[in-house]
Amino acid sequence: MKNLNIMKNLNIIFCLSLSVVSFSLKGAPIESLKEVEVDEMCIRGLPGERLDAMIRNNLRELDFDYLSRPFTRKSETGSWGVIQPGIWQNEFWGKIMHAAVPLSRYHGSGDLEKRIEKSVKTIVASQLPDGYIGNYLPKFRGEVCDVWGAKYTMMGLIHWYDATSDSTALKASSRLADYIISLFGPGKKSLGATGPFCGLMNCSVLEPIMWLYRRTGEKKYLDFARWIVSELDVNTKGPELIPLALKGVPVKDRHADNHGHKAYEMMSCCQGLLDYYLETGDKRCLDAVVLSAENIIADEIDIAGGGTQYERFCASRKRQARDYAIGSEMCVLTTWMRLCQKLNAVTGEAKWAEELERTFYNSYLGSFSPATGSFDAYASLAGERESFHPLHCRMQINCCEANGPRGFLAYLGNAATYSNGVVNINQYLFGIVNLPSPSGGKKKIGLNSFTEFPRNMRYALTLDLDSSEKFTLRFRVPAWSSKTSFKLSSGEKKEVTNSGYVSFTREWKDGDQVEVLFETKVKEHIENGHIAFTYGPLALARDARFGDGDFSERVRKGDVEFSPVTPPDSSMYAAFSAFLKMGVHDNPPRAISFCDFSSAGSTRDKRSFYRVWLPLAE
User: Fold this and answer.
1) What is the pTM of this model?
2) Which residues contact 422 (CB under 8 A, 6 or more apart)?
C-alpha cells in the first residue's frame, strides 16, 4: 500500500519482516482465522518502541554460533544430579529462531539473517546419519530433556523453512522427527510415562509433529500425532491432560505429586492439541484445551495477567494479594500469550484476545528491560524487578531470555485476523496493517490506525483501499469498557455496552474512517483484605519514585476519583493520582500516585520499589 511504502522509506515507523507460522498450507477440515503476516505491519506507540528496543539490544546482539555449539559437541549426560547440568542446552537455539528469523530482515539489514543462516547450516551439518540432532551422548539420547530440545530444534528449522523455502531445513526437521518416532510409539517407549513433569515435556513434541504433517503431507506424522494424543488421553501413566480437563479437574490438581501441574509444559501440550483438532476435528482435544484455559483464567491469572508460583499452577489468582514469592515466569507468560493467540484464531472468541492484551501490557512488558533488551525470569506483584538474571545449563543464557522475544509475535500475530470477507480488529495498535483483499488477487486492504491506547481510550482507523470493496469490519469490544462508541465517517453511530465483537458490513471506500471511544475509569478490586486498581487493561501500582508514603499503610474504603498526571520519570508510561484515605484514623485524604504495572520497578533496584495490592483498613 502506498502509505506503508512512504513510512518505510522515511523510517518513521519500524517495519518488521516476519513470517507468522501458517497452518493453511494444506486444507484442514477445521478452518481457523488467518493472521496478518507481520511484514505487512508497521507499528508505533508503546508496543513499537519496546519491540524496537528488543531487536536492537537483544536479537541483534545474539551470538548464533554460540547457541548452536552444543549440537556439535554432543557431550550431555542428562543427569539432574550434576550442578548446573546442560540437559536443556538444546532448547535455546530453536526458541530464539521463532523471533529471530522473522525479525532478521528488520530495516532491510541482512547481517542478522546471514548469521542465522550460518547457524542453520551448523545445525543441519550436526545431524547424524540416524537423523539425531541434539547435545546428548549416545546412551542418554531420548532421556530427560532430549525430546523437549528436539521439539524446539524442529520448530526452529521449520521457522527458517517458512521464511526462506530452504528445503534442507525442512528435510532436517523431518529426519529428526523420524528419529523420535524410531524411539517412541506403539510397542516402543512411552512419551507420556517418561520424561520430566509427568510426561508433559515429552508430549509437547506434538506441536512440531503437526507442523511437519501440514508441510509434508506425510501420513506417518499424523499417525504419530494421533498416538501422542492417546498418550495425553488414555495412558493412565501419563499426564492425562484430556480426561482430567474434561472432568473439570483444576490445572493445579493435575498429578501435582509428579509435577503434572507444571504450567509451561502443560500449555505447550495444549498448543499441539489445538493443531491436532484443526486437522482432525477431534472436539475432545478442543474442549480439553478450552476448559483448561478457562480454569487458568478463573484460578491462576492475576490482576497483571501473570500467574503461577515457581512455575506451577497453584490457584495463584486467589492468593495474589498475599503471596509475593517467585511468580509469573517469563516462559509461562509467553506460552500463555501464544495459547490465547491460538484460541482466538480457533474459536473466534474475543475473551482470548482480551487475556492476551492484559498479559502483554502488564506482566510481559513489565518483565522486559528496554535498556538492556533482556527479559526477567520471574516477577511478582510487589518488590523489585530482577537486576540479576540466572544462567542455565552452563551457558550465558536462560530459558526465559530465550522465550521472551516470542511474546511480541503472539501479540502482533493477534492484532488483526481475517477469514471469508471478515476482518477482525483484536488489538488496538498505532500504525499500519495490510491484509489480503477478500476479492482476491494482489489487492490489499490497508488499516491505518492512530491511537495512544492504552493510556488514552480513543482509536481512529482509516481505510486505504485500491478500490471500493464490500467486507465486514469487526472490532473487539473489551469487557473493561462500560460503553464503547463507534462513529463512522458516513455519519453512522453505534454504542455497545456488552463485550465481544461489533460488526460493520458495507461497501467501503478509500479513506473511510471509524472512530472508537472506550469509556472506562479506574476500577477497584478487593481480594483477601487488600485493594488494587486497574485502568482499562492496565494494572496500577504504587512506586517509590513518587515519594508519597509507606506502602504498608492501610487504605480506608471510600469514593475515589483518579486523574492522569505527568510521570516523574521518563521511563514511566502512564501515571495517575487519587486522594485516598490512609491509615486507621479519620485523617483527611491525601494524594497517592500510581503508575502502570509495566513501568513499576523499572529502575530494577530500591529506587522504584513497587506494590500493586495495598492493605485495607478494617
Assistant:
1) 0.94
2) 471, 472, 474, 503
